[in-house]
């Protein structure tokens, strides 16, 4: 299981769109995926239309146990391979501005209760077994949609993830937000040595905008090779697919296909990073 966070410290730049795009790409490849909706707005949950759950992520963080975790996860309407750790506006009560280490570790402890394995299970039913959480599958990928603020929720995500995708638009305020997000990633490495920025993803790029070109050059000066070469163009297909309640991968227009290809590429980068991390851990155990 490989855990990736999607974040920006400026709202409205499309981090939920990126989370959903990656989930759709993973479904296309048959990767068993859990989307964790950590944003109090709950937009990822709304888009993925999960079945009704007994509890939500707010309850699971309040009582981080396998039993509550199991009742907070529901299958998505999008695809059999996608599940949702259901979001709730009540999660805001966990967004303390200055949490202690115990609070920061809650999400990590919660995800540690997920079944571990090298291969995903066959599609499972949602009947409850006697062992709490035993009916959950082995997820190959966990995607965390973070809120656009640096409180307990985002920081706890950074403690739990292996890689962070930093989302920005090529605009002045968004560039400032992604700078602060990068600094947050670096700071949380004290609590999570595994954590690395996967890259800076530029969203809603317009090729004929001089301002966008200027900001992209600014981002490359700031972050160098961390700026991902595959930018996401500004296409109405994204809003159309979301309005229809389907993954961008199933919206058959030239714009949707263009964006889908970029999500495929980004997912490939995440998967390769996961394989490399496992190889390093395996090598360390063999030589230890």
From TrEMBL:
It comes from the Bacteria. Pfam families: CbiA. InterPro entries: CobQ/CobB/MinD/ParA_Nub-bd_dom, DNA_Partitioning_ATPase, P-loop_NTPase. Residues 6-247 form the CobQ/CobB/MinD/ParA nucleotide binding domain. This is ParA family protein.
